[in-house]
């Protein structure tokens, strides 16, 4: 069992991984599938679809950017007065924890891409201490971002919500994705204990690669 210590917001917390290996998830109920890495079922198992966005540096970000890597993803917008600042603070904790780890990256999608242009994301990133080598804030086609959020990452559907494509996407969830674009966990990005669990689960995932 892995034990780690996380320092953030003047707190030191200890968290253990819940399991020796992480489950796989394939749909909105987040029912765990306990599979091994060589399980034949994974050949047709749910994967995050290919995507193409632009980050705060004007660089193109695709699924190939994270080929062979683990990444943590969320959805936000720069003018959000509610949950987004706290989510960004907690993503910043993840950035600090994994800054020297070349296998772990962060990916935040703007849900208001019409406003969140590259210059807007760049200014936001600078204000929030985002390191573009570790953490990409991306903009792109609204329909692609919303489709990924709802149909690939299931970031709202775990709450039992069924929304129309034109409805606003707003969620506090962080999603853990492995090197094969399989979903391995979902976490409340507003909750420090949940974020600490995410950190522990990343360690578990790395140990089982």
Write a concise keyword list for the protein shown above:
disulfide bond, copper, SCO family protein, two-stranded antiparallel ribbon, SCO1/SenC, 209 residues, seven-stranded mixed sheet, single chain, 4 helices, Thioredoxin-like_sf, 25% helix, Glutaredoxin, alpha+beta
CATH classification, class level:
Alpha Beta
Average of per-residue pLDDT values: 89
The Rg value, from CA coordinates, equals 16 Å
Total number of strands? 9
* Helix percent band: 10-25%
Any guess at the CATH architecture? Answer: 3-Layer(aba) Sandwich
State the end-to-end CA separation.
16 Å
By CATH, the topology is Glutaredoxin
Tally of individual helices: 4
Instruction: Give me the CATH superfamily.
Output: Glutaredoxin
- Quick one: biggest sheet? 7 strands, mixed
Morphology? globular
Instruction: Give, in spatial order, the strands making up the sheet with the most strands.
Output: 4-3-7-6-5-8-9
- How many separate domains make up the residues? 1
Order of helices and strands: EEEEEHEHEHEEH
Query: Which parts are unreliable, with pLDDT below 50 for 5 consecutive residues or more?
Result: 1-12
Pfam families: SCO1-SenC
Binding site for Cu cation: 80, 84, 170
Keywords: Copper, Disulfide bond, Metal-binding
Family: Belongs to the SCO1/2 family.
Topology:
Layout: E1 3-8, E2 11-16, E3 52-55, E4 60-62, E5 70-76, H1 84-97, E6 104-110, H2 118-128, E7 135-139, H3 142-152, E8 173-177, E9 183-188, H4 192-207
Parallel strand pairs: 5-6, 6-7
Antiparallel strand pairs: 1-2, 3-4, 3-7, 5-8, 8-9
């Amino acid at each position: 069992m892995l034990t780690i210590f996380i320092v953030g917001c003047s707190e030191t917390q200890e968290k253990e991984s819940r399991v020796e290996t992480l489950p796989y998830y394939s749909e909105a109920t987040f029912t765990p599938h306990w599979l091994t890495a060589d399980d034949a079922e994974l050949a047709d198992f749910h994967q995050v679809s290919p995507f193409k966005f632009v980050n705060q540096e004007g660089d193109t970000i695709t699924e190939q950017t994270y080929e062979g890597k683990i990444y943590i993803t969320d959805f936000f917008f720069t003018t959000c007065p509610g949950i987004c600042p706290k989510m960004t603070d907690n993503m910043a904790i993840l950035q600090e924890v994994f800054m020297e780890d070349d296998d772990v990256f962060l990916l935040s999608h703007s849900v208001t891409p019409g406003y969140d242009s590259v210059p807007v994301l760049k200014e936001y990133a600078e204000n929030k201490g985002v390191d573009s080598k570790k953490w990409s804030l991306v903009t792109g086609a609204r329909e692609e971002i919303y489709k990924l959020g709802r149909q690939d990452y299931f970031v709202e559907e775990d709450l039992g919500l069924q929304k129309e494509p034109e409805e606003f996407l707003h969620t506090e969830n962080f999603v853990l994705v492995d090197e094969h674009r399989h979903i391995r966990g979902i976490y409340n990005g507003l909750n420090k204990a949940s974020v600490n669990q995410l950190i522990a689960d990343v360690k578990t995932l790395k140990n089982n690669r």
